[in-house]
From TrEMBL:
The lineage of its organism: Eukaryota, Metazoa, Ecdysozoa, Arthropoda, Hexapoda. Its cofactor is Mn(2+). Belongs to the glycosyltransferase 31 family. Beta3-Gal-T subfamily. This is Glycoprotein-N-acetylgalactosamine 3-beta-galactosyltransferase 1. The keyword Ion transport does not apply. It comes from Anopheles culicifacies. It comes from the Eukaryota. GO terms for cellular component: membrane.
Length: 368
């Protein structure tokens, strides 16, 4: 009605003022459109799927909703070179940070586990670390993340990923590798870190640790043995990839994933042992990547700066919506491994259980 009246008045006005009044009318229309856009337009685009997220954090406090205990496996030789950098960067973002070593060091507040040092003792150090966690903290936190002392973790992305999962589900996540002759459902790279639900920790302590036939004390390859123990007590090795199939837990440093052309070779060991197809280049990693491995101590400071402090002028970050809570069936559904032809990938292809020596030789390329 208002527009009609103004249009009639404009026609009745002398030509001397018609252009002036027409400009005022156009300006008023543009201002109303801009006001409507600022109040409802972005909401429409978000609801219709054109854009997602908002410029503001969600009302839910993920730090309290997804309580994460992080523990770092280290050795006294690395207390000053590596652990101090973890404590100065990503470590305090966990709800609780435990440093597991063989020596109590007040400077880094490390816990002395009753295990000798050496690569051959990594598995038993992991066993003792989870024993300590169960006996002291299992009811206080929801998820329990294991990292090496050269692992960098974006804790906020870890919480964002874990939010839809119940910690009472028997499940754990990480960078999934395959060795079907030994563990059919896959296992997780120790260097990229892996995270156990509260129920997974319970089963590991109450069932696996009490049965050496299920969970050997002599096997040396820590991450593979962890996968076998979890499988023996029906803890699911979950799928942590994003909607585009990109990994969130990464077993190398960012440069290796971004620029490593070896992944184009089907015979490259990472392609053979990766449970899901790995990617390189800009599409290598999820936008919400959680962890990277082989990060020297001083580079943790650089990672922290690049992620949390460096900004490109004019760019803005949008918080994605929190994913809906998963039902147990949705949470435990895991995609099959991608097919490869360069190695035997089925349990039927091997009629023997690999010895410690065989496994040490197989995984020698994993060592730093």
């Amino acid at each position: 009605m208002m527009l009609r009246v103004m249009f009639k008045r404009l026609l009745a006005t002398s030509p001397r003022y018609s252009h002036f009044l027409f400009g005022i009318l156009c300006g008023w229309i543009v201002s109303r459109v801009m006001y409507f856009w600022s109040t409802t337009g972005s909401l429409y685009l978000e609801s219709s799927g054109w854009i997602t997220g908002t410029d503001h954090p969600p009302a839910i406090n993920l730090t309290e909703r997804v309580r994460v205990l992080c523990w770092v496996m280290t050795t006294p030789a690395n207390h000053r070179d590596k652990v101090v950098h973890i404590k100065a960067t990503w470590g305090p973002r966990c709800n609780k940070l435990l440093i597991m070593s063989s020596m109590a060091d007040p400077e880094i507040d490390s816990i002395a586990l009753p295990v000798e040092e050496g690569r051959e003792n990594l598995w038993n150090k992991t066993r003792e670390a989870f024993r300590y966690i169960y006996e002291h903290h299992v009811e206080e936190y929801d998820w329990f993340f294991k990292a090496d002392d050269d692992t960098y973790v974006v804790v906020e992305n870890l919480r964002y990923f874990l939010y839809p999962y119940s910690p009472e589900l028997p499940i754990f996540f990480g960078s999934k590798f395959r060795y079907p002759q030994y563990v059919k459902q896959g296992y997780f790279s120790g260097g990229a870190g892996y995270v156990l639900s509260r129920e997974a920790v319970r089963r590991f302590y109450e069932q696996a640790l009490q049965d050496e036939e299920r969970c050997s004390v002599v096997f040396e390859t820590e991450d593979l043995q962890m996968g076998r123990c979890m499988e023996s007590v029906n803890v699911t090795a979950g799928d942590s990839r994003d909607a585009f199939g990109r990994k969130r837990f990464l077993p190398f440093d960012p440069a290796a994933h971004l620029a490593n052309s070896d992944t184009e070779d089907p015979g490259y060991w990472y392609n053979e042992y990766s449970y899901y197809k790995p990617f390189s280049g800009k599409n290598c990693c999820s936008d919400f990547a959680i962890s990277f491995h082989y990060i020297p101590g001083y580079n943790m400071r650089m990672m922290d700066y690049l992620i949390y402090d460096l900004h490109a002028w004019g760019s803005s970050y949008r918080y994605p919506p929190l994913p809906p809570t998963k039902t147990p069936e949705e949470a435990m559904a895991v995609a099959e491994a991608y097919p490869i032809k360069t190695v035997q990938t089925t349990a039927e292809s091997s009629t023997h259980t690999p010895s410690t020596e065989t496994m040490e030789e197989t995984f020698s390329s994993f060592k730093p």
